[in-house]
Structure to design on (215 residues):
């Protein structure tokens, strides 16, 4: 993700606390109050400019979505995309936070599914702990998900995909629906991310898997 410093990002984000939730730790254990219903909540960790999470929210009105993004300049694009919609998207919220801190604002079972799309690969071994499929992150997700919940992961990066297969299976996750070329047999209802559109247009295969936590 190319980062452009956008000095107005903080102010615009601050003007929309109904979409970009300030002080998310205040909602730990009671996120359903934020949405005003008891629907399950799915998160995308590292949502970038938000194409996927917005597409999912519009396609699945009975599921609530939270897009998590570290950089305000990137999150601003997601926010502007939501504001450009003709109608409000009541089942979508954004968080401008580091996913490393997510156990501060989500309690066990607050979240029903984690999406990881085109996560930064961090190819150097010394940066392995930053990969969103490192065992430390798998442990964090386990702290906020109920038993038997799933992570859905897509990437164009073969190295990260291979690393994640190993990391997830060593952690004890059950791998299912592993695809080495998602678009060769695209499942119905696949919502493309920005990176997915970019890489699949270039003819690159998209890798995908679902990983389930055990009982
Ligand atoms: N998911 C989008 C897609 O598929 O088009 C964006 C992919 S982009 C390569 C990865 C995004 O994850 C970046 O915007 C980055 O800032 C964000 N990110 C990486 N590590 C993160 C973390 N620890 N917490 C929150 N966001 C993170």
């Amino acid at each position: 993700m190319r980062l452009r410093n956008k000095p107005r990002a903080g102010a615009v984000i601050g003007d929309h606390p109904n979409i970009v939730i300030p002080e998310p730790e205040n909602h730990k254990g009671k996120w359903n109050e934020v949405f005003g219903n008891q629907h399950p909540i799915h998160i995308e960790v590292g949502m970038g400019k938000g194409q996927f999470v917005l597409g999912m929210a519009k396609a699945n009105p009975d599921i609530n979505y939270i897009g998590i993004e570290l950089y305000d300049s990137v999150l601003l694009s997601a926010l502007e995309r939501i504001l450009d919609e003709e109608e409000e998207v009541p089942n979508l919220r954004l968080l401008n936070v580091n996913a490393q801190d997510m156990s501060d604002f989500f309690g066990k079972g607050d979240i029903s599914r984690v999406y990881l799309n085109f996560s930064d690969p961090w190819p150097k071994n010394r940066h392995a702990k930053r990969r969103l499929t490192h065992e430390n992150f798998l442990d964090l997700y386990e702290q906020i998900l109920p038993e038997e919940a799933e992570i859905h992961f897509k990437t164009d990066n073969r190295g990260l995909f291979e690393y994640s297969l190993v990391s997830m299976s060593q952690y004890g996750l059950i791998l299912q629906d592993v695809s080495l070329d998602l678009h060769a047999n695209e499942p119905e209802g696949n919502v493309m991310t920005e990176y997915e559109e970019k890489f699949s247009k270039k003819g690159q295969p998209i890798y995908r898997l679902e990983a389930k936590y055990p009982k």
User: Anything to note?
Assistant: The longest strand covers residues 150-155. The first helix runs from residue 9 to 14.
